């Protein structure tokens, strides 16, 4: 199976990405919301983890209807987070420590307060009218088509003053931009140059597969599997509102811009696309060698599938098989949008999951706080912030539990802020924080560091080939190989012991998720051994 471990690997193939949710990493100003100076003050911690790049969720001026994913100025810094000078300082400080820095580019929609939209909605003949997607009502006066917002409700908002609807794939405060308009496209591509000129190392691109809609905006087909209680978004299949060929062409233009800043060098700028699609369609976002698109189309399959060894063995095989020869894999286990892994699979399994994330073939993205094993967090009803939860309450869509502040130590507010944090901390923060876990040899933090260290030492783990090892029940096993070096990773996704794969017997043990050792793979154990 997949791999070309003999070739040279750029930093973004060898490396590990660490996602920071800036509102919740470190507050330096004392307003209960994290900021750039706070992140800068924690760079040594990030470097000490052994990751290679930081991706910052959006830091641009924003009314915060969707906590930064509603951008009111693509070229500035939100005052809550600091200033452009703070940003330049942070970038330089990251680079001094050998850390790359990626920004979050949000091309599908702006804030409704962005001056472009203010102009666009001011009249039907405003030159920026066509920078957004405006349509007349359907003959019955209702929305122009059946598209549904990802946050529930129609994807169309009526504008009384100009007598048309505008499209919003997310909140009404997030009108969709019209990438079919050449001026809009040029203005947005210039935003990439603006930040690349400042020295950023690339972008995570928000909902990239959404940015162009089918010509004529035809209805989406109904989803026969939808039933009440499910996310309203899934009432329809987003066949006409997402994944259009024209969006691939734009991704290729973005890539050409990134590549013009130094492809195939240590200064290579990387593009990571946020794309939720089945593997065959996801793989198309790599483009072709002649016309590459994004370096890494995010692979969310570990988040989207049941935590079951046979299911995961199957999806790894399917994913590897779907990759084009030139496509480098990647894996995501947590994010500001998904449930915390430890909340999903439990604390003991979260350690196995961390070993999986950091030993599968491909670039891992590690979400802040997962290295502490933060699990379930209860958000009291009066503290709910997430607009997705507010629009469809009570069906499990709330993202606040994954967005709670980092816990640094046992001082008030866990050292996150002098003020009450904008979201509550996880309940067990007095024991589950960076300072406490640093002192505990068996902590999730120290396991994460050990895994990252091993990954850095062993080319087989960082860039080696992947080969599945037969297993059944709760055992998931695979080999990673580079040159003469062969490592076996054996993961027990259940809580009862299973036999170790034959070839592990007598092999040198490199790292286990559990203390001590046994002749079998204990319940909730993940083990890495050296075969050769
Ligand atoms: C992406 C972001 C999510 C946001 C949405 C709309 O999925 O990760 O947080 O709400 O896009 O911008």
Tally of discrete structural domains: 3
Ligands bound here? alpha-D-glucopyranose
Rough outline? globular
Mean pLDDT: 97
Spatial extent as radius of gyration: 23 Å
Low-confidence stretches: none
Any idea what the CATH superfamily of the largest domain is called? Glycosidases
Oligomer: single chain
Strand content: 5-15%
Order of strands, main sheet, comes to 9-8-7-3-2-1-11-10
CATH class of the largest domain: Alpha Beta
Distance between the termini: 19 Å
Number of helices: 16
Helical content (DSSP H or I, runs of 4+): 25-40%
Name of the CATH architecture of the largest domain: Alpha-Beta Barrel
Biggest pleated-sheet summary: 8 strands, parallel
Say what the CATH topology of the largest domain is.
TIM Barrel
Describe the secondary-structure layout.
Blueprint: H1 11-14, E1 17-20, H2 36-41, H3 43-49, E2 53-56, H4 84-96, E3 100-105, H5 115-120, E4 134-135, E5 156-159, E6 164-167, H6 182-198, E7 202-205, H7 245-259, E8 270-273, H8 279-283, E9 296-297, H9 301-304, H10 309-322, E10 330-332, H11 341-345, H12 347-357, E11 363-367, H13 387-391, H14 434-438, H15 444-457, H16 459-463, E12 465-469, E13 475-482, E14 485-492, E15 508-512, E16 526-530
The structure holds alpha-D-glucopyranose.
Alpha-D-glucopyranose (GLC) is lined by residues 66, 69, 106, 170, 206-207, 274, 336-337.
Walkthrough of the structure:
This protein is α/β, with parallel strands linked by helices and 532 residues long. The protein has helices at 11-14, 36-41, 43-49, 84-96, 115-120, 182-198, 245-259, 279-283, 301-304, 309-322, 341-345, 347-357, 387-391, 434-438, 444-457, 459-463, and strands at 17-20, 53-56, 100-105, 134-135, 156-159, 164-167, 202-205, 270-273, 296-297, 330-332, 363-367, 465-469, 475-482, 485-492, 508-512, 526-530. It has an 8-stranded parallel β-sheet with strand order 9-8-7-3-2-1-11-10. The chain is globular and about 75 Å long.
